[in-house]
Amino acid sequence: MGALISSFRGPADANIAASAEETGLGDLPESCAAELLLRLDPPQICRLAVLNRAFRAASSTDFVWESKLPTNYADIIERLFEGGEEFASCKRNIYSMLCRPNFFDGETKKAWLDKSSGKTCLLISFNGLSITGIDDRRYWTRIPTEESRFSSVAYCQQIWWLEVYGEIEFPFSPGSYSIFYRLHLGRAQRRFGRRVCSSEHVHGWDKKPVKFQISSGDGQQATKQCHLKEPGKWIHYHAGDFAVEKSCRSMKLKLSMMQIDCTHTKGGLCVDSVVIYPCEYRERLQSF
User: Fold this and answer.
1) In sequence order, which residues have a C-beta less than 8 Å from that of residue 202 and are 6 or more positions away?
2) What are the percentages of helix, strand and coil residues in the chain, rounded to 5?
3) Cβ–Cβ under 8 Å, residues 183 and 271
4) Residue 247, number of CB atoms within 10 A of its CB
5) Which residues make Cβ contacts (< 8 Å) with residue 36, sequence separation at least 6?
């Protein structure tokens, strides 16, 4: 029976079978591969790009990467870079550039896009904040350290009145964001290659809570209080959240950290930075 069926198969059938055996994912039309990539996040796109020539070609198309960029990416480029027109060529390169931490405002701030979601992440150095008495060496000193992404922190030895203010104007992409202060009780340093922390000046923070406040240009406000704790450890203290409903050309934020009860002194505090991060990725700050 098998021999009988085989006798009816002509040369055309054999050619079709051979052609089917030679066809693979590499022969997928670029347009089909691009449609698939549109449904993936950027890290997944980069992994598929090394699979074959179809996905490699599709992963370079502008319309794939433009779908991953925030709709106001041109405003972000204008805020971060002078001569933003230089970035008007390849959308994949634009995405890659914006995902790197980029300094701005005299290198007192850094901004980048989260690689997976394209949402804004922002870091403000203590030098980009206004700290009452920062230039008075009796109260504050600037300490170089490898534990800061800006290479130095502000250290308060002793003070009666703590005020730290900040203001930022930035074109955030849509989403919900959390604001954190990165603080440390005690002075950490390296001795013989080991990290040691001096807590001799840490005092007063358990008596009254520190008050955090944020407000946005569109009327959002948040207030939070907490005691500073756990000497020897960097902690991200949550100051509040805000939301961006749609891509904006500029969102203005004001933030503050205060402990102005003058019935007691407090000291031994390192102020590093303020972090603005997408709410859904807050757990990443544990290794930040």
Assistant:
1) 185, 186, 231, 267, 268, 269
2) 25, 35, 35
3) yes
4) 16
5) 48, 58
State the average pLDDT for the chain. Answer: 86
Q: Which two tokens stand for residue 222?
A: 């948040």
Is-above-0.90 flag for pTM? no
What domain range is 110 assigned to? 103-287
Indicate whether 210 and 126 sit together in one domain: yes
CATH of the domain at 220: 2.60.120.260
Amino acid at 13: D
Report DSSP state, residue 89: S
Does residue 126 sit in helix, strand or coil? helix
Q: Which of 199, 195, 166, 171 is nearest to 185 (CA)?
A: 199
CA-wise closest residue to 124 among 87, 84, 179, 75: 179
**Token representation of residue 67:** 């779908």
pLDDT of residue 1: 43
